[in-house]
Amino acid sequence: MENIDCAVIGAGVVGLACARSLAAAGHEVVILERERAFGTGISARNSEVIHAGLYYPPGSLKARLCVEGRSRLYAWCAGHGVPHARCGKLVVAGTAAQMGALQQIAARARANGVDALRLLAHDELAALEPELDAHAALLSPSTGIVDSHALMLSLLGEAERHGAMLALGSPVVDGDSSADGIVLRIGGEAPAELCARWVINAAGLDAPALGRALRTSAAARAPRAYFARGVYFSYTGRAPFSHLVYPIPEPGGLGVHLTLDLGGQAKFGPDVEWIDTPDYHVDPARAERFYAAIRSWWPALEDGRLQPGYAGVRPKIVGPGEADADFRIDGPDRHGAPGLIHLYGIESPGLTAALAIGDHVAGMVRG
What we know:
Blueprint (H helix, E strand, L loop, with lengths): L1 E8 L3 H12 L4 E4 L16 E2 L10 H20 L3 E2 L3 E5 L5 H13 L6 E4 H7 L7 E5 L3 E3 L1 H14 L3 E3 L4 E7 L2 E6 L5 E10 L5 H7 E2 L10 E10 L8 E4 L9 E4 L5 E10 L11 H8 L11 E11 L11 E3 L1 H4 L4 E5 L5 H15 L3
Parallel strand pairs: 1-2, 1-12, 2-9, 5-15, 10-13, 12-20
Antiparallel strand pairs: 3-8, 4-8, 5-7, 6-7, 10-11, 11-12, 14-17, 14-18, 16-17, 19-20
């Protein structure tokens, strides 16, 4: 049985960021990924938005790591040739009655350290985005978009440059504590055992199940997993918008909003539904709900323009009707199990915060 310093379980954007930070800090790192390629789970099914940090409670991990991660991410993309754009985002108040909610978002964002926000009245908004029909909007210039695959490729490249190794087709079945660390049993075509002094559980949707499968004193603290599927529809043609457009958030999510990719293709979503197991089916009939929601701020949207796009599933650790949970990054100080760090509920803004999460985790690994 081989002994190593650090095992990172999961090769999505957060797992790769953790591996890069650990390797750069001088640790021996093996990344264990059950699939035959990196970044095929949550990281392959997201909106690729670089979030500014508007919505999260001040002082929360989400707020702190999003704001720190956003500035780090822009610098990383510029320095590593990762395609991205600082396109900006508009949060729109459809009526005067929503102005209070818009001002609350602005106040929370400023408390989180989000700068350069502007409140736009109707005339100024109309000049900026003529197709928008709204009473007012909050402009967030620091919101952007990124090529998530290129980002992950750059993180993997830097991790490998510092000596990390990626083991594909290597699902972690379970594990136990030992005197030397945590013994991981790995399945796949070549089953093996690996003893790691530190294990970082960055398994995304499977993180809670893996937390229980690793038979340590921390297993009882693993949260229940909930799955929230977000369905997206693509716009046929080129939408007449240069900014991302979001309505005032609604209970359970941010409402049906407009995002853009780096080629200018518009997509709308997500329409969130709670499901029992991860499922990426997109029902074309759901488009009717999208038309009604989008026309509340873009009344000129034509029939027949929306086509099924894709679905993503958020790794929730709270269920329907419950308040959103903060990121949970559980280390030995929280759960008592030496050498183990669990990343639970790392949903949006996980991509934006990935570099900051990686450094946070590396700072928890001692010696």
